[in-house]
Specification:
Number of strands: 14
Structural class: alpha+beta
Number of helices: 10
Mean pLDDT: 87
Radius of gyration: 20 Å
Largest sheet: 6 strands, mixed
Low-confidence stretches: 337-362
Length: about 375
């Protein structure tokens, strides 16, 4: 029987009914709650709110020390930034979570697990308050952890996500863009892991020139980490946004895929055979479905979107396309555009990652 759990100061379920805010949920968390409320096919989960991070940091009493360490940093001195980053992250990861916050997170995790016949693995994903903003791109600066099982692992990796607010890359970006460290906070998404047979990104424009009459899709086999790390070249497909007809496609090599090994209880890399490499990893129907999902995102958010999606091998065709993330496209959308904007006729969905084939799941860690 599914446990009922009410949203609290420290926990907000995707479908809990509480209005999402960037301040409470960060960019990723707010987007997932918004998309779930809009009826989009988002895997279930909850967000550990920024209030829990703030309570954790207050209990630890280390905020002033962190600000002091960051105050005099030279962003061009990478060795110094790396050393400060490592010290801050180790300190955060070593601290205990306040009892009430931990209790609420345990209850939320148990409630999520009760939705399934047996416990399922989850992804734990950083959701910073400064990410996914229309005028900035913070993609990839904080951590995501895949295929975690049991609350102990989830709790440990929530703290790792909090600590990733202070990755070297994030520190340098903030310093160079005059973004103050004071007031920063971090939410964390805990979400059912998708058993992806194919995954990718879709943008509701052509990233090479900003043409909003096109949809660009990158797709590869398995979980998207292989693309993140640059180890595989995905298929790249361009469709007409109105008719969804194929305009251009380039088949990537797709020589390997990251898939679950149920016996080992972790993700493993497997070679893709020559026949699968040589063909597109999405059928025509799946391609149309992904494009339609991207159009739903754009219509809902009323701005060009960059979505992350996956086809779940555990779900039947027609129900297996899931939306993992939606973000506003930030490069071309901020510019005046001369391309005609076609009418978008489907309901909305959203997500983000560069169409060069790179996913924007941040620094993705696989558990042993």
């Amino acid at each position: 029987m599914t446990q009922q759990f009410t949203d609290t100061q420290y926990i907000q379920f995707f479908d809990g009914g509480t209005e999402p805010t960037l301040a409470n949920l960060g960019g990723k968390g707010a987007s997932l709650v918004t998309m779930t409320s809009a009826g989009m096919p988002v895997p279930p989960g909850f967000v550990v709110t920024t209030a829990q991070f703030d309570a954790f940091m207050h209990e630890a009493g280390i905020t002033d020390h962190i600000h002091a360490l960051l105050a005099g940093l030279n962003p061009d001195d990478v060795a110094e930034v790396d050393a400060v980053s490592a010290a801050i992250r180790a300190d955060i990861e070593s601290r205990a979570v306040p009892a009430e916050a931990r209790a609420q997170t345990v209850a939320a995790y148990d409630a999520l697990m009760s939705r399934f016949d047996a416990p399922v693995p989850v992804a734990v994903r950083s959701s910073a308050t400064a990410e996914d903003l229309p005028d900035a791109s913070f993609a990839g600066q904080q951590d995501t952890y895949l295929w975690l099982e049991g609350f102990g692992a989830v709790s440990e990796h929530i703290r790792k996500c909090w600590a990733s607010l202070y990755t070297s890359r994030a520190i340098i970006y903030r310093l160079k863009n005059n973004i103050p460290n004071e007031g920063l906070s971090m939410a964390v998404v805990v979400q059912k892991m998708v058993n992806a047979k194919a995954s990718g990104v879709a943008m509701t424009l052509d990233p090479t020139n900003g043409d909003r009459s096109k949809i660009t899709i990158d797709a590869s086999y398995g979980v998207g980490e292989m693309v993140v790390s640059g180890q595989v070249t995905p298929d790249n497909i361009v469709l007409d946004k109105v008719t969804l007809t194929l305009i251009n496609e380039h088949l990537g090599d797709k020589h390997a895929e990251l898939i679950p090994d149920l016996a080992a209880r972790r993700l493993v890399e497997r070679e893709v055979d020559a026949e699968r490499r040589a063909r597109r990893c999405l059928t025509d129907a799946q391609l149309t479905a992904v494009a339609t999902l991207a159009k739903r995102a754009e219509k809902h958010y009323k701005t060009p979107q960059d979505i992350e999606w996956a086809l779940d091998a555990d779900l039947p065709d027609g129900e297996n396309l899931l939306l993992l993330q939606a973000r506003p496209e930030t490069v071309h959308s901020s510019k005046a555009h001369t391309q005609p904007t076609p009418m978008v006729s489907a309901p909305t969905q959203a997500g983000q990652a560069p169409s060069s084939g790179g996913f924007s799941w941040g620094s993705i860690k696989l558990t042993a």
